[in-house]
C-alpha cells in the first residue's frame, strides 16, 4: 500500500484570525485549533517513542518503512506491550481524543503519534469485525502550527513540552472513584430503568474498568455507608465521613479480605462480629490502633483464632499489635509447614540421593528427633 509522504500532502488550512497563543517553555507560539479526519493525519516516522519499534518492523519485513502499509505498521505497534495501544484505543472509542494532537501545517506530527495509532487501530478493529467506524474518529481535535512560525529550537520546545514535562495529574483516590461510579450507576438505573446487571455493564463501558472492579468499588462504598450510619448522631456521622475520606483504603481492604476470596468469613455471625470490631477501632480516628492497612487482614483472621480473638476483644482493641504479630507468626509457621510438605513430596519421588543429600538428611533426622523430645 502506498504511503503518502509529507511532500505529497497539501497544506493544512490555518485561517488568519483563528490563532491561539499557547505557552511552550515560557515562549508563546501561535496554534490553530481545528478538527481533522483520521485520513488527513500521518504518523511521525522519526518519533523516538516508536523509532525502535519501526526498526524492528523493517528488519522483520526486510523493507523500508515507507514501503510498509499503514495497516501493517499499526498492527505491529499494537502488538508491542510497551505502547499499550489497546487501552488507549478503548478509551478513544468511548470518549474520543481528549488531548488535541499537535501538527505542523505541512503534516508533520509533533505530538500525538500514539494517539494517532490508537485511532487507526480502533478503525481497523471496527472494519475487521464488520462494525461501523466509531464517530469519535470522524473529527479529531488538533492544534496546527505553521511551519513558517517555527524555528528548530521552538520545535524542540514543543516536543519537550508534550513529551517530557509531567502533567502533574494525580490519580483519583479510591473513595472518589467509588463515588463517581456509584453516582453514575444509580443515575442510569433511575433514568433508564436498568436492572443491576445492565447498569453494571454500562458502568464498565463508560469508565473502562472491569466488572469486578466496578462491583468492588460499589460494595466498598456500601461498607463505608454502614460505617458512617453506625455513628448515630449527625455530629458523629460527619466525623466518620472525615475518617472515610482519609482511610477509605482500609475499608477497601476489609471488604476484599473479609467478604470475598479465600479468606472470607463463612459465618454471617462471625462476619458481623469482626466488622463491628473493625468499625469500633476505625471510629477512634487518630487514636485508632489500626495505623497501617496491613493490620486489617490479621485483624480479620484473628476471629478464626480463639486466643487471638479473646485477647483483642477483652482489650477492646488495645492489644491489636500483639494480635497482629501472633496471627502473622502463625502464618509463617504454616508457610514453613507447606515447605516441609513440598520437600517430603520431592523426597518420595527422588530415585537416588547424592552423598551430600544423605548427609544432610541425617542432620534433619537428628534435629527432628531432638525437637520431638523437647
Descriptive notes:
The structure is a single chain. With 374 residues, this protein is α+β, with helices and mostly antiparallel strands. It has three domains: 6-163, no CATH class; 174-329, no CATH class; 334-373, no CATH class. It has helices spanning 51-61, 70-79, 85-95, 113-128, 152-163, 174-192, 196-207, 211-229, 234-258, 268-282, 296-302, 306-314, 320-349, 355-373; strands at residues 20-24, 27-36, 101-104, 109-111, 140-145. A five-stranded mixed β-sheet has the order 1-2-5-3-4. Strand 3 and strand 4 form a beta hairpin. The protein is extended, with a radius of gyration of 30 Å.
Attribute tags:
14 helices; alpha+beta; disordered N terminus; extended; 374 residues; five-stranded mixed β-sheet; 3 domains; single chain
